[in-house]
Write a structure and sequence with these properties.
Blueprint (H helix, E strand, L loop, with lengths): L6 E8 L2 E8 L4 H12 L6 E5 L2 E2 L16 E6 L18 H15 L8 H10 L1 E3 L10 H6 L5 E3 L20 E3 L12 H4 L7 E3 L20 E3 L20 E3 L20 E3 L20 E3 L12 H4 L5 E3 L7 H4 L5 H18 L19
Parallel strand pairs: 1-5, 6-7, 7-8, 8-9, 9-10, 10-11, 11-12, 12-13, 13-14
Antiparallel strand pairs: 1-2, 3-4, 3-5
Pfam families: LRR_8 (PF13855), ubiquitin (PF00240)
Protein name: Ubiquitin-like domain-containing protein
Function: Leucine-rich repeat protein that likely mediates protein interactions, possibly in the context of signal transduction.
Length: about 375
């Protein structure tokens, strides 16, 4: 049986804390930087590593730079070259969401919730089909919601302190839109079994909560057109997401997603995808199957390449944001099909200028220039 190669532990100092990192004794500086990327959210090209007053060169082995077991290395992060929620600093939480939610919870604890549910509200909900419960400091959905049952088409309970979505949500059979943004919902207290009964649901927003994972049950919501799950703590998307054949908009920015299932290529109706500020290093080749894709946001990830067929097959793609990734403009121009993509987006930009709609007048190349590496 072959023995494992020897390793050393390097103590990396960053943002007021010390991070122990185990690396092969024969590793290069570049390899150490890649290991530090998910631990610090700083892209390799934004890292400067210093040991005993010397800057460690990417191609050099750690041993040649006198970095040994127990050595202390300082990490200096370049401004703007980070992924995920950004570099961790002394005075900030590791998650922007955590800061927001902590503040939200404190408000809920100090303010007395309004009494908003009653016979008058329930009667109105039944007539209009709209239960507007946003910004009421609610800790739970009121019982009157369940009494209205099939009458409700839209339930907006955003910006509250709701911790639980019970199985009773299944009673809202006619629900088209469910907005639960900015609450306190975690994996333990959301009934996906109940949600799976909502076969008319078109729009689901669970952004700014405390979700760590999404279950396979998500794939049963086959009528979905929009799925918003930004600003959670998700580290992946389930394989069953490929069952969402009609979903057009997927907003999943500011999570901790490290990889995507190839089944995402089966979401054939997707026109807009936002995966900004995650921990992605690559995209599956299946992205090339998203023939209707028009907008793709990928900034602040650790991406080093794009799927080879992205530009060739996604012929409707006109907006691509790769700022803050390892993919620079020079790399982007070498991807097959780039010329056609560039022509499409420039035509769009010119139209915006002609009609003075949605443009500052400055054309965005879509990625950082190579000089950002320096």
């Amino acid at each position: 049986m072959e023995s494992s190669p020897p390793t050393i532990t390097v103590q990396v100092k960053f943002a007021g804390r010390t991070i122990p990192v185990e690396v092969p004794a024969a590793a290069t500086t570049a390899e150490l930087k890649r290991l530090l990327q998910p631990l610090t959210n700083v892209l390799p090209r934004g890292q400067k590593l210093v040991c005993k007053g010397k800057v460690l060169q990417d191609a050099a082995t750690l041993s040649s730079m006198q970095v040994v077991d127990g050595s202390k290395v300082m990490l200096i992060a370049s401004q703007g070259l980070h992924q995920g929620d950004g570099p961790i600093t002394k005075n900030s939480s590791s998650s922007a969401t955590s800061v927001t939610k902590t503040s939200n919870v404190k408000e809920c604890q100090t303010q007395k919730p309004e009494t908003i549910a009653g016979k008058i509200h329930a009667a109105r909900w039944k007539v209009t089909g709209v239960a507007a419960l946003h910004d009421y400091d609610l800790k739970e959905l009121p019982e009157e919601v369940w009494y209205c049952g099939p009458s409700i088409r839209i339930l907006d309970a955003s910006n509250n302190c709701i911790k639980e979505i019970p199985h009773k949500i299944s009673a809202l059979k006619s629900l088209n839109k469910l907005l639960l943004t900015a609450n306190d919902i975690d994996d333990e207290n959301i009934s996906w079994e109940g949600l799976s009964c909502l076969q008319k649901l078109l729009n689901l927003s669970l952004s700014q909560n405390r979700l760590v994972s999404l279950p396979s049950t998500l794939g049963s919501l086959t009528s979905l057109r929009e799925l918003r799950i930004a600003n959670n703590r998700l580290d992946n998307l389930p394989i069953e997401i490929g069952s969402l054949k009609h979903v057009q908009i997927l907003i999943a920015n500011n999570n901790r997603i490290t990889s995507l299932p190839s089944s995402i290529g089966d979401c054939e109706s997707l026109t807009e995808v936002d995966l900004s500020s995650n921990l992605l290093t690559e995209l599956p080749e299946a992205f090339g199957k998203l023939y209707n894709l028009k907008v793709l946001h990928l900034r602040n990830n650790g991406l080093t390449s794009l799927p080879s067929t992205l530009f060739k097959k996604c012929m409707q793609l006109i907006t691509l944001d790769l700022h803050g990734t390892e993919i620079t403009n020079d790399i982007l121009r070498q991807v097959e099909g780039w010329e056609e993509f560039d022509e499409r987006r420039r035509q769009k930009h010119q139209k915006q200028l002609d009609f003075r709609v949605g443009s500052s007048g400055v054309f965005d190349e879509g990625a950082d220039d190579d000089n950002r590496r320096r």
